[in-house]
Amino acid sequence: MNESSALLTDRYELTMLQAALRSGAATRRSVFEVFTRRLPDGRRYGVLAGVGRVLDAVENFRFTTAQLDWLADQKVVDEATLEWLRDYRFSGDVRGYGEGEVYFPGSPLLVVEGSFAEAVLLETVILSILNYDSAIAAAASRMSAAAGGRPLIEMGARRAHERAAVAAARAAYVAGFGATSDLEAGFAYGIPTTGTAAHAFTLLHDTERDAFVAQVESMGRGTTLLVDTYDLGEAVKTAIDVAGPELGAVRIDSGDLTLLAHRVRRQLDDLGADKTRIVVTSDLDEYAIAALAAAPVDAYGVGTSLVTGSGQPTCSMVYKLVARAESADPDAPLVPVAKRSAGAKASRGGRKWAARRLDAEGVAEAEIVGTGPVPGELTDRLLHRDLVRGGEIVGREPLSAGRGRHLRSRAELPISATQLSRGEAVIPTEYLAFG
Amino acid sequence: MNESSALLTDRYELTMLQAALRSGAATRRSVFEVFTRRLPDGRRYGVLAGVGRVLDAVENFRFTTAQLDWLADQKVVDEATLEWLRDYRFSGDVRGYGEGEVYFPGSPLLVVEGSFAEAVLLETVILSILNYDSAIAAAASRMSAAAGGRPLIEMGARRAHERAAVAAARAAYVAGFGATSDLEAGFAYGIPTTGTAAHAFTLLHDTERDAFVAQVESMGRGTTLLVDTYDLGEAVKTAIDVAGPELGAVRIDSGDLTLLAHRVRRQLDDLGADKTRIVVTSDLDEYAIAALAAAPVDAYGVGTSLVTGSGQPTCSMVYKLVARAESADPDAPLVPVAKRSAGAKASRGGRKWAARRLDAEGVAEAEIVGTGPVPGELTDRLLHRDLVRGGEIVGREPLSAGRGRHLRSRAELPISATQLSRGEAVIPTEYLAFG
Questions:
Q1: If 0-12 CB within 10 Å is exposed, 13-18 middle and 19+ buried, where does residue A217 land?
Q2: What pLDDT, on a 0 to 100 scale, did the predictor assign at position A310?
Q3: What positions does the domain Nicotinate phosphoribosyltransferase N-terminal occupy (chains A, B) (predicted)?
């Protein structure tokens, strides 16, 4: 999709723009940051995903004539603001964590710098993308850790908004899944797609044998036959009878998967089909996957729990103004700012950098967040990459880069990171040099 | 958005198509139904939303040349199947519950009839839409019941995938919300949009007073001022000082909302601003809304919990083949079919109709689901509408129709339906005439 992202925006971004244009504050140089105050309950690390999609959204944040006409017609903003929006394109800078990177409370995930006017407009769409994609990536990462080396297939499209499903497939791929059922995710992002048949295909034919014959004739013996429409044992027998021991795989989509996997494995082996793999796909989540570790399962298909973030369908990332110029003068110094009201919503002012501190064994021991210049003696790994410079997208990378980054950064975490039990963030966030 | 929906589809729909084209079964007349086996834990009714979006998706389910080239390049299906897809458009019939209608386990929400080939392809995108939109509508309905007559504003865009957010605003509007912050939802669906300013606007200016002056000058005294950036009491005082007692509203976005609403109401009244309304917007869900019933609150803004379905971010709707012809002959009789394996996934075969039975006082007492012809003596309200006939979309209606239908059908339910406590489905589903 390459269409305008400009109206994927809360109305108040535009009304703030209008008021700031009028007050003259709109041109004050400003720094907004994306961060989260906490991880979801019990989670030990977060996983950033959606960075590439954010870059697309920034690039496509242009108002079309039809959109401007609608804004005028609805009197969302005044004429002067419409004129300003007509020429809008982001001309500032964005730095941030790389796609797939793990994160912790307070990690400055994205730092957006520009005039207030141009930076405030991006709030909603940036948060939409990062909050959803990172929720999926966090769940996917737990599942891929639980699966050990066994392949994972994302197949949750039917349980998510149809476009969210595509983003979910992408985020899952970043966090360790190997394939998706979603064709659009293949088309748009080059993610490997997979899939063979549903129960409807068996029910359509007069007999299960007819269905298996039709499928094998069409897709070859390497296909995956779904064996739980009627009687599982009969189906496995028929499957090997039809396809021979070269059958690629059988899929089990219901019942006690541990028990059935053992039974089907034995049956397949007895039939000489010891290379035929077993794929299981019934309401799996990271706990069910972990519980199947000792069962003879060759691949997992995961749907609902993946695309809903396994109980945490969004993150709590926010986009906050942390510093702004004293005046509209382009050389005016930046002043740190922060909400100060009572309650849990206070935040730390000032533009931030971040680094991950590793111990002598290369195990992460702290997330270091600082303001001001990075100390010259700092030996920790800095976490920000340049994403946008003077309005130009400079941070694009192939999805495989995010995939690799995720595996590396997760591997650096203390072992307890991938325990499924509830716990605190696996490393602390330490703040340096706050004034 | 008017672009192709054809790849928002699981790969196995296309591979089943290929195998069925080859076996000859593809042309068998088939009936698929969308239903759910259960409501989410503790919920007493479901709310169908997304019907209008399904009709758009059916209409836009055409493969573009670029999509076909990609399918060929990836060898997803063979040449004969690609040729078939090139001319695809759905030419069958769809009947179903109206948008906004309440539903129960087993309700046949959508009945899709056509050749196996043309009907199977629609599975994924139909389920994506209905499962997401109905999850949001169910949450929105609980919130709107809890809010009594007070207005509700949807403002969760930043916590959902950017396109899902638009669908969420639409579903919330069907189920009783009055407005949304999401501009695209206004642009695409005509939903009223609202919004004024965030904390960033106050922080941008040198003082809170400067910010309030700028906002009131730009948006008039009827605007809503956000009063919890620094000190709430000071901010309310400044707000009335700047805008006068004609100030439209103040918004509180953090803290103990019951306590603060009372305090702010008293302060506003003391300042002579007894018409100035109070809007609250901090992490609300249906329980928090209900708890604020006795507080002097005039409107609720709801974000995260709405767009994530308040703990139930998806429904468990499935799309199942329930009947298909004995042969490819267009006059061949339909045979009911159903998965029969062990476990909870068995289903009832046969094409279904549905009706709601009301008692003498007009209170719903049962969901009646039957196969075969509708009994002539049936006096219960039939629930299916024609949506697509011979491939032509005939069921479009304005969003206001779904909004009205939801209010009416919810009002018919027993009073316990809108209790927030956990419980069973508020009326039973009764099956008639299953052979």
A1: middle
A2: 97
A3: 7-131
Question: What pLDDT is attached to residue A340?
Answer: 78
Segments of chain A with pLDDT less than 50 = 1, 435
Tens-digit pLDDT profile for residues B347-368: 789 999 999 999 999 999 999 9
Indicate the residue type of B16: M
Q: Is the CB of residue B47 less than 8 Å from the CB of residue B406?
A: yes
Of B204, B219, B343, the CB nearest to A255: B343
State the Cα–Cα distance between residues A62 and A137, nearest whole angstrom.
Answer: 28
- Rounded average pLDDT over B306-330: 96
> In chain B, where are the structural domains located?
11-136+312-432, 196-294
Closest CA to B284 of B115, B416, B414, B152: B152
Compute how many other C-beta atoms are within 10 angstroms of the C-beta atom of residue B32: 26
A interface test, pick of B54, B64, B161 with most A CB neighbours within 10 Å: B161
The torsion defined by the Cα of B390, B396, B401 and B402, in degrees rounded to 10, comes to 80
Separation of alpha carbons B56 and A212, rounded Å = 35
Residue type, A24: G
CB contact under 8 A, A183 and B76: yes
Residue among B31, B54, B183 with most chain A CBs within 10 A, to mutate: B183
Q: How far is CA B386 from the centre of its chain?
A: 20
Residue A342 and residue B254: Cβ atoms within 8 Å? yes
Tokens of B69: 């080239």
In sequence order, what are the residues at sequence separation of 6 or more whose Cβ sits closer than 8 angstroms to the Cβ of residue A263? A232, A233
B389 beta partners: B392
pLDDT band at B20 (very low <50, low <70, confident <90, very high): very high
Q: CA B177: distance to chain centroid?
A: 12
| pLDDT for res A435 | 47
CA atoms within 13 A on the CB side of A49: 31
B96 contacts: CB under 8 Å, gap ≥ 6? B34, B51, B108, B109, B110, B111, B384, B385, B387, B395
Q: Residue B374 gets which letter from DSSP? A: P
- Whole-model pTM above 0.90? yes
The reply to whether CATH 3.20.20.70 applies to domain A196-297 is yes
Confidence of residue B85 (pLDDT cuts 50, 70, 90): very high
Rounded Cα–Cα distance for residues A368 and A107 (Å): 8
Average pLDDT, whole number, for chain B?
96
Q: What is the mean pLDDT of residues B235-262?
A: 97
Angle between helices A123-146 and A399-412 (to 10 degrees): 60
Q: Could you name the CATH architecture of B196-294? A: Alpha-Beta Barrel (3.20)
**Distance (Å, rounded) from C-alpha B393 to C-alpha B373?**
24
**Distance (Å) from the alpha carbon of B128 to chain A's nearest alpha carbon:** 4
Please give the CATH superfamily to which domain A11-136+312-432 belongs: nicotinate phosphoribosyltransferase (3.20.140.10)
What is the token pair recorded at A73? 């017609």
Give pLDDT tens digits for B147-167: 999 999 999 999 999 999 999
pLDDT at B330: 87
* pLDDT tens track for A385-395: 999 999 999 99
Query: Could you give the ipTM of this predicted complex?
Result: 0.97
The answer to whether the beta carbons of residues A97 and A107 sit under 8 Å apart is yes
Q: List CB contacts (< 8 A) between A219 and chain B.
A: 15, 18-19
